[in-house]
Amino acid sequence: MDFSYSEEQRMLADSLRRFVDHEYTFAHRRKSARNGIGFDRDVWSNLASMGVAGLTIEAQYDGFDQGVESYLVVNRELGRGLVHEPVIPVTAAAAILSAYGTQEQKAEWLPGIACGDSIVVPAYSESGSRYELDSVATVALPAEEGYVIHGEKTVVWHAQVADAYIVSARLGSENGDIRLFLVPRESQGLDLVVYPTIDDQRAADVTFNNVRVSADALIHTQGAGDEALRVCINHGLIALCAQALGAMERLIEITTDYLRVRQQFGKPLAAFQALQHRVADMLIQKELAGSAIYIGIQGLSEPDASKRERMIATAKLAMIEAARFVGQQAVQLHGGIGMTDELEVSDYFRFLTMCDPIFGDHDYHAQAYADAMEE
Fold first, then answer.
1. Are the C-beta atoms of 228 and 180 separated by less than 8 Å?
2. Which of 21, 135, 205, 243 is the S-S candidate for 79 at Cβ 3.0 to 4.6 Å?
3. CATH number of the 7-119 domain
4. Domain Acyl-CoA oxidase/dehydrogenase middle: where (predicted)?
5. Where does residue 340 rank: exposed (0-12), middle (13-18), buried (19+ CB within 10 A)?
6. What is the DSSP string of 67-108?
7. Residues of CATH 1.10.540.10 domain(s) within the chain?
8. 227 falls in which pLDDT band (50, 70, 90)?
C-alpha cells in the first residue's frame, strides 16, 4: 500500500489545512462547543463539499471512491484543528452500509451522506457491554411488515444531529442472532438523553421504546451482525487514530512555540537542554504512533481475521500510549496554565484523553491482541 500523497490527496490536505487555519479557528470551535449542540451545519456542508463525508463511498453513489489510505490524509488535518463535526461516526456508518447495505439502502442513504445532507451514526454500545460487540440486550421482534425494536444504546456519538442510526439488536428473542437495522431518528418511541463529553463533543443515550421499522430497515449481514459491526468499528477506529495523530502534531507545535517565547532566567525555555529532550521524546512517540497507524490502515483490507485484529489493535494501542504521553508532557511544559480554559492546550489534552475509551480502550485492545496471537 502506497502511503505517499497523490496530487489529489495533497490538494485535499492543503484545502483542509487552509480551512482549519482560517475558518475553524480556536474561537469558532469554542463557540460551537458551547452552543449546546456541538455541531455547525455550515462547517459540515463545507467539509462535505471538499469530499470528507463521501471519501470512500463509490462514485455511483456520488462519493469519491478513494481507498482507505485517504482516511489518514483527511483526518490528520481535521485532528490538527480538533474539528468537532461527526466525521468519524459517519465514516464508520458509511463503511458498513457500503459493505453490507442492500442496493435500496445504498441508493437511499449513501448519496445523502456523501453530499452532507444525511448523517448516519452507529448505535451499538450498551450498559455493561465493555466494548464487546456480541453483548447485546436490545431485541428486534418480527411484526407486521417489519420489526419492533426495544432496548437502549449508550454513548452514541453525535446522536443528537443524526438522521438515522445503525442499531444492533437480537432478532426474535434475547438469544437470537445479532442483526443490524437502519432506524430513522424521527421514529416514534425513540428518545434521546444528550450530554457533553469531556472534550466538548456530544453523545447520547438512545432508548428504543417499541420502535417500529419496516422490513427494509434490516441490513443484510447474513446473521453475523457482530462481525459486520466490527467492520464499522475498525474503520471508525482508524479514522480516530489519524485525528489523534494530527492533534499530537499540532500540540507539539503549540508547545514548541511556547517554549521559544516563555522566558526564564533571562533566556527562552527552549534553550534548556532538559526541555529540548522532553520535546524530542514527544516527537518520537508521535512518530511511533504514525507508523502503527499505517499498519492499522493496511489491516482494514487484511483477509486473515487474526492478523487483521492484531494490526488494528497495534494502531489503537500505539495511539493511546502516544496520545497520553504527548498530552501530559504538553500540559507540564506549559506549567500551571496548561490546563486553563484560556489556552488551546487543554482542548487538545482532553481530546487525546478521550481517544482512549472510544472504540475500545487500552485494556480491551491489549486483550484482543493477545487473543489474536493465540489463534
1. yes
2. 243
3. 1.10.540.10
4. 123-210
5. exposed
6. -TTHHHHHHHHHHHTT--SSHHHHHHHHHHHHHH--HHHHHH
7. 7-119
8. confident
